[in-house]
Amino acid sequence: MVWSTIATFLRFSPIFVLFLLPFSVTFHVLLGDAPGLTNLLRRVLHTVVFLTGEFDYEANIASSQYTLTYIMFFLYLLVGTVFLMNLLVGLAVSDTNEAMERAT
């Protein structure tokens, strides 16, 4: 059952990355990180941490001077934390239902 859920997540991961990378790059540009690949990779990691609910709003978003940052953050809240996380939960639950049907 665990392997089935992991396989489902691996099939879903390209879509997950396609939603995550544009937000990471946008936050990298809007929040004024220093240019460079290592700082971009840190921002990608930071965006993944955002998915766990650790937004650190005061340190990251509230200090920004651009209105677009607030708009992108709101979109990220909707797409990342609501849509993607609920989709992952739905995929895990559907795998559980399949396992329950196969159980004796």
UniProtKB/TrEMBL annotation:
One GO CC term, this protein: transmembrane transporter complex
Upper classification of the source organism reads:
Eukaryota, Metazoa, Ecdysozoa, Nematoda, Chromadorea
Report the source organism.
Acrobeloides nanus
Q: Which domain of life is it from?
A: Eukaryota
Recite the UniProt keywords alphabetically: ANK repeat, Glycoprotein, Ion channel, Ion transport, Membrane, Repeat, Transmembrane, Transmembrane helix, Transport
Q: What is this protein called?
A: Ion transport domain-containing protein
List where the protein spans the membrane: 12-31, 70-93
| InterPro entries, alphabetized | TRP_cation_channel
The record's Gene Ontology biological-process terms are: monoatomic ion transmembrane transport
Report whether Transcription shows up as a keyword of the record.
Answer: no
- Matches recorded under Gene3D superfamilies: 1.10.287.70
| Single GO MF descriptor | transmembrane transporter activity
